[in-house]
Specification:
- It is a single chain.
- The protein is built from eleven helices and 25 strands.
- Helix 1 runs parallel beside helix 7.
- The protein starts with a strand and ends in an 8-residue tail after the last helix.
């Protein structure tokens, strides 16, 4: 049986590994535009900030290891056309410009996403750079060595992390965010304001609710940024961290595709064509807090979806469990993590959503050192189900976000979270863990609603 995989980053690599494991007799051919595979885009800000000295170190796989296992690795090949009915692929060798025709029995599409370039006058200026691919990371890093004042466009995870990287490398940074708060898709106002203050305390100029309208060169070789509120800012270069769009053009009109362009799959990662599977940034996920499909491009999703696609290719072995979109970042020594719905998103989803905010030392006051932990817990008032949580602390709270992710996955309530068994040691927490305590605070808030004395 012939298996073709288009795209070889996180989803493609995971799919290939599983296909080799479960279907050792399959003939596997991989098509990849680039010369390398497995670049982690988060390495860009880590490299600029000095945590990763060499970008080459972040590649966790290479084509040669798969060639040794019998995979036909067609690197630097661009797939031009898929004919789903005929089960054929037309590709071009980007080095020789020769065309190649191929057939498949099963196909996995892991073509990922492309950067959504904002429509701003002057954005084609060479001083304005992107930061998604490894080549772009190299270019951005090299350009920053000769420029001091840098603007970052986009206040999501990528923009905030890149801002920290530039600060660590000694640059002056202005962060532009079109929406009224930073990380607006991930956290609510209280923690967003804490993030903004943390950036400002580290000498970042943060401009929220600010739309950039034009880029233009100055006479002395700098770059002028004009905004819709008639303000102007002079910088040396700009890094753009916009959103991304699914790269699904190859299957348009051949499989079911969502309005946003993402390929629709079932729980086994199978498209509406039974011989075509899809995984990673080109697809949607099942978003458990709202029981709907949603486009949330994360590396963690790509790895899991790719694993399922490769595993289920010829035999249905395992369904997707869906996702809570759990994610996190480390910013100037503070862990910021979240899972599930924000309060605003929960209300938009028509939940009777409430929230509680919890701030306390993470362990007993008699311990020699301590630090504050900040938690926002979102829940549905009617069912008492936990819907989401956000964390911020210099203490490591990322695993607490993972715990709440499981709570949401299992449809647990604030009552469950309040009294679920957790370890106690003065080294780590109070007799009631802080997750217990924030849920108990939610229960106390709801006493009047439930008519309890």
């Amino acid at each position: 049986m012939k298996v073709a995989i288009i795209g070889c980053t996180h989803a493609g690599i995971s799919a290939m590994n599983e296909c080799l494991k479960y279907y050792p007799n399959a003939e596997i051919t991989v098509y990849e535009r680039h010369a390398d595979i497995s670049y982690l885009s988060c390495a860009t800000y880590l490299h600029i900030g000095g945590d990763v000295k060499n970008l080459g170190d972040v590649f966790y796989a290479n084509p040669e290891e798969f060639i040794k296992k019998g995979v036909h690795m067609r690197m630097q090949h661009d797939v031009i056309k898929i004919d789903a009915q005929a089960h054929t692929i037309l590709a071009q060798n980007l080095k020789t410009r020769e065309f190649l025709h191929d057939k498949y029995d099963k196909l996995i599409v892991a073509t990922g996403s492309r950067t959504s370039i904002p429509v701003i006058a002057g954005i084609e200026n060479p001083k304005i750079m992107l930061c998604k691919t490894c080549n772009q990371a190299h270019q951005l890093s090299e350009a920053s060595k000769n420029n001091h004042k840098i603007a970052v466009l986009g206040g999501g995870y990528a923009g905030v992390e890149l801002t920290e990287g530039f600060v660590k490398s000694g640059h002056e940074v202005v962060l532009f965010q079109r929406n009224d708060q930073l990380l607006d898709e991930y956290v609510d106002t209280t923690i967003s304001e804490r993030v903004k203050k943390l950036l400002e305390d580290n000498h970042v100029t943060v401009l929220t609710g600010t739309n950039v309208s034009r880029f233009s060169d100055t006479k002395d070789g700098h770059l002028k940024i004009s905004t819709e509120d008639d303000n102007e800012y002079i910088v040396d270069m700009v890094a753009i961290c916009p959103g991304v769009l699914p790269q699904s053009d190859l299957l348009k009109g051949q499989v079911n595709i969502a309005k946003n362009g993402a390929i629709i799959t079932n729980a086994y990662m199978q498209t509406s064509d039974p011989d075509i599977f899809a995984a990673g940034d080109v697809t949607e996920i099942q978003y458990n807090p709202t029981l709907t499909s949603k486009y949330i491009p994360l590396a963690s999703h790509a790895v899991r979806q790719g694993t399922l696609a490769g595993m289920n290719l010829f035999k249905r072995r395992r369904k997707s469990m869906g996702s809570q979109a759990t994610s996190g970042m480390l910013l100037f020594g503070q862990t910021i993590a979240c899972t599930g719905l924000t309060l605003n998103a929960a209300k938009d989803a028509n939940y009777d959503a409430h929230h509680v905010y919890f701030e306390s030392n993470y362990r007993p006051d008699f311990m020699p050192t301590n630090t504050k932990i900040n938690i926002e817990l979102v829940y549905d008032r009617k069912s008492r189900r936990v819907l989401g949580a956000q964390f911020m602390s210099s203490h490591e709270v990322a695993q607490s976000a993972n715990t709440v992710s499981v709570i949401i996955q299992n449809n647990n309530t604030i009552d469950d979270l309040a009294y679920v068994d957790m370890l106690f040691s003065p080294n780590f927490d109070e007799p009631f863990n802080y997750l217990n305590l924030v849920a108990q605070k939610a229960i106390d808030k709801e006493l009047d609603y439930w008519g309890m004395d």
